[in-house]
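In the design runs reported in the main text, the only information available to the sequence generator was the tokenized backbone. The following block is the verbatim input for one such run; it is reproduced so that readers can re-run the procedure and compare outputs position by position.
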């Protein structure tokens, strides 16, 4: 059974894809904090707010490009944000170069922004998982427990642990694929 977060995410994604009137507002309510936090990790507060607004304006203008079958709305928005962050940082670097008139080596920001976006999408995917699969993934990857140890601690069959782990990882993969196309 999907978690309440994933149920509302699914309905918002479908409404957004259809072009429903309130879909942008609902998408912002659901993912605005995620996009803003992602922006804030690379930009100062003022620029992060501006870029977050640009992301949702761009999403509205290009909503026809969003395809739910290709990935999540969160992933699509993070992909837009990644490009806007990189553009913003590069523009600031060009501006700084003109101001200083010194030799300027462009910082490779794309890889850093990609890593941050991936971490945030994994966290978002984990947040949307039902409780048990989220716990199974955490126990396996963060606590380094075997399938048998997890089954014993959760008092569930080992097959359930394996199924929860697989389904959870597929959800995380779907989130990451929606960012990286």
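Verbatim output:
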């Amino acid at each position: 059974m999907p978690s309440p977060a994933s149920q509302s995410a699914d309905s918002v994604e479908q409404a957004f894809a259809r072009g429903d009137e309130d879909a942008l507002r609902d998408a912002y309510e659901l993912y605005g904090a995620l996009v803003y936090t992602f922006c804030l990790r690379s930009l100062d507060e003022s620029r992060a707010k501006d870029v977050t607004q640009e992301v949702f304006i761009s999403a509205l203008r290009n909503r026809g490009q969003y395809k739910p079958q290709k990935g999540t709305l969160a992933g699509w928005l993070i992909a837009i944000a990644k490009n806007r962050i990189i553009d913003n940082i590069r523009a600031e670097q060009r501006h700084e170069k003109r101001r200083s008139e010194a030799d300027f080596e462009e910082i490779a920001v794309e890889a850093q922004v990609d890593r941050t976006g991936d971490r945030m999408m994994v966290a978002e995917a984990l947040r949307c998982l039902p409780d048990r699969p989220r716990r199974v993934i955490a126990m396996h990857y963060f606590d380094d427990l075997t399938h048998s140890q997890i089954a014993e601690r959760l008092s569930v069959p080992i097959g359930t642990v394996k199924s929860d782990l697989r389904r959870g990882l597929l959800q995380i993969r779907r989130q990451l694929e929606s960012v990286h196309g």
